[in-house]
Amino acid sequence: MPDIQHHAQIIKGRAVVADDWRVLRLLDAETPESVEVPTGKVIVPLTVWRAQRESLLGRAGANGEIGVWFASDELATSAKDDLDRFALIAIDFPKFSDGRGYSIAFNLRKRLGYTGELRAIGDVLRDQLFQMQRCGFDAYATRQDRNIHDALKGLTVFSETYQGSVDQALPLFRRQQRDVPLEHSDVGAGI
């Protein structure tokens, strides 16, 4: 029997909401080809999707019962042909200090045009949420040993950003009108 993880609540957008999805994780003795995917809304590892794609196709897409999760060492392009089939894609953060998931999220949103729910799972803490949001995440399954309402505050720790990213395409100097004399042709003048 595979390891099924479920969070009672997640952060979605900027609110704490009930979660109706479960995350399937393989146990040591299981293989992507042989693991049994339970009924209901399940987020399966990308390796399971690839191995059982034909049998899972009917549950993805219109039914919206299958989502996938990327391990931190997988590329966003690994599922580029199937992205429109998933209402939800999750990215696993195996430990707080592993930042590869940020790149996967950015690439899914900006380069591959994924518009569905993008969820952070695993070792997700309050300190990460603001930067995760900047990279394109819109849902967060925080660590269950932490207060989710406290973690929610992590989305608002900064009132302004300087750089452009997924959540704000224009950098600050392009968003702010400055009183700069006309003789200046430097786009950064007045900052």
Mean pLDDT, to the nearest integer, reads 88
How would you spell out the order of helices and strands?
EEEEEHEEHEHEHH
For the largest sheet, list the strands in their spatial order: 1-4-5-6-7-8-9-2-3
Number of domains: 2
The helix/strand class is alpha/beta
Write the layout of secondary structure elements.
Layout: E1 3-5, E2 9-12, E3 15-18, E4 22-25, E5 42-45, H1 46-56, E6 66-70, E7 88-93, H2 100-111, E8 117-122, H3 126-135, E9 139-140, H4 148-152, H5 172-175
Parallel strand pairs: 4-5, 5-6, 6-7, 7-8, 8-9
Antiparallel strand pairs: 1-4, 2-3, 2-9
Structure described in brief:
The chain has 191 residues and is of the alpha/beta class. The protein contains 5 helices and 9 strands; from the N terminus they run βββββαββαβαβαα. This is DUF934 domain-containing protein.
